Amino acid sequence: MSTMATEETPKGRGAMMETIDETLNTKESRMPPKTLAEAVAQQKTNPWSIRLVAILSISYLVSTMNGFDSSLMGAINAMIPYQETFGLSGAGSSSGIVFIIYQLGQIAAFPFCGLIADGLGRRWCIFIGCLIVLIGTAVQGSANHLGQFIGGRFILGFGASIASAAGPTYTVELAHPTHRGFMAGMYNNFWWLGNIIAGWTTYGTNLHFSDSWAWRTPTIVQALMPAIVMVFIFFFPESPRWLISHDRADEALQVLAKYHADGDVSSPIVQLQYNEIVEDNSLTDDKNPWWDFRELCNTRAARYRFAMVIAMSFFGQWSGNNVVSYFMPEMIKSAGITDSNRQLLINAINPIFSMMAAIYGSSLLDRLGRRQMMLWGLVGSLISYCFLTAFTAQSANNPNLAYGVIVFIYLFGVAFAWGFTPLQTLYAVECLENRTRAKGSGANFLFLNIAIMVNTYGVSIGISRIGWKLYLVYIIWIVVEMVIIYFFFVETAGKTLEELREVFEAKNPRKESVQNLKKTNGRLVQAKEV
């Protein structure tokens, strides 16, 4: 025994010291991270959990509802059977009223969004909203009188608003923090999927039906996506941030570990998020009643956050995209293409290119940052709108220029979708605090729908009265947007949602958000954190 000890002591001592050093180094490397960059440096994790991707993919379908309605109404508005059923023409104030009633329904739902999403949870909010959409679809699809059709659209808008208030909140709060831009940015890209389904459905029904089923069929198809969401939503986990705010911290930790670190609760990324959410919840414990929205603007930082939400609501709708979405057949008609089937075919093809561009744009959000994507997207949109205006103005004298109009409608859609579509919901939700995210997301849709309502009603009348000259307004407004984004919008990439508190509490939030950015492993992080 003593012989063995004598023989192995030098080697044993050396091995022991190496083991101690490794243990110390491991402990040092596993010190609780204070920033996202530190967590990533300590342990590489696979953000592409199959389960997480599947969950987010189903939640993305919530976004299809608004995209479907946008293409649906623009398409059936050009159908003769629809116009004959309700005694409407393709453009004008009567059509505008039918369009904006959907937005009025969404505005009416605003006070209930925070109540349901914060009180019952993100999943219940999505479920209830989808259920109301199914009811609205039944009312609208069976209508024989304009009053019933309008009532159905109001119910549709009401339900879509409730589901949409929780949808982006759910995806942002569940997405992996290192890939939040792509994962949560994909949510609004599915707006285009709804647009595509509606576009091709209306093209097919208009081609093969000559009676009211030409417009009833696509109206009924509108129930498909919310029905799928309702079937699956309760098989998914609740938002970990909602769980912590409702004293269910253990469940939240398990959700973070399962979907962000393959079940490892000691993972630095899991521990960072968990600790930050718990700390944020303790600092900002929400005691305000559901009807009290003062917390959205009761501090300087809160007002800056809310200003970003409001600006994004209007910029996302007043950049000329709303005209293209709702009135593309009328735009094409004003350029000299009058055949309704050709109008609907062009209307159906356009969103395919836009969705492809939006998906590519989402993949760049964590690499280029939110600000660059918005600015370059608007540059492309501005150039396209200038050419679109010029070609439309001259197409009456030269019918061949109508094809130039189509090209630049498509190019505008690609540019806007690349730079802006992924951010329309993502950016606003990122800018909000955990305790105000549901209320703020509801407010985002409130202002978004006010913007759409003003835009749609005004565009409906404007196109019928002044035609292409209306496009000049959007050219000027896009320039204004670019200036505001450059000087005031903050960069949200490279930080967890909780780390953005430092940005908004800084003296100059925009400057604070961009001054230390650098790329690590191809993604933006704060240089001082690396």
Explain what the structure shows.
The chain has 24 helices and 2 strands. It is an all-alpha fold and about 525 residues long. It has a single domain (about 45-530), classed as MFS general substrate transporter like domains (Growth Hormone, Chain: A), CATH 1.20.1250.20. The protein has a two-stranded antiparallel sheet. α4 (about 65-75) runs parallel beside α16 and α9 packs antiparallel against α20 (about 425-430). The model is unreliable at about 1-30 (pLDDT under 50). GO terms for molecular function: carbohydrate:proton symporter activity. It is found in: Membrane. Pfam families: Sugar_tr.
In short, what is this structure?
With 530 residues, the protein is mainly alpha-helical. 74% of the residues lie in helices and 2% in strands.
Task: Give the topology.
Layout: H1 2-29, H2 36-42, H3 50-60, H4 64-76, H5 80-86, H6 93-119, H7 122-141, H8 146-174, H9 180-208, H10 213-221, H11 224-232, H12 240-245, H13 249-260, H14 268-283, H15 300-315, H16 321-334, H17 340-368, H18 370-394, H19 402-419, H20 423-431, H21 437-466, H22 471-488, H23 500-505, H24 509-514, E1 517-520, E2 523-526
Antiparallel strand pairs: 1-2
Helix pairs in contact: 3-8, 3-9, 4-9, 4-16, 6-7, 6-8, 6-21, 7-8, 7-10, 7-11, 8-9, 8-21, 9-10, 9-17, 9-20, 13-14, 15-20, 15-21, 16-17, 16-19, 16-21, 17-18, 17-19, 18-19, 18-22, 20-21
Main location: membrane
Protein name: Major facilitator superfamily (MFS) profile domain-containing protein
GO molecular function: carbohydrate:proton symporter activity
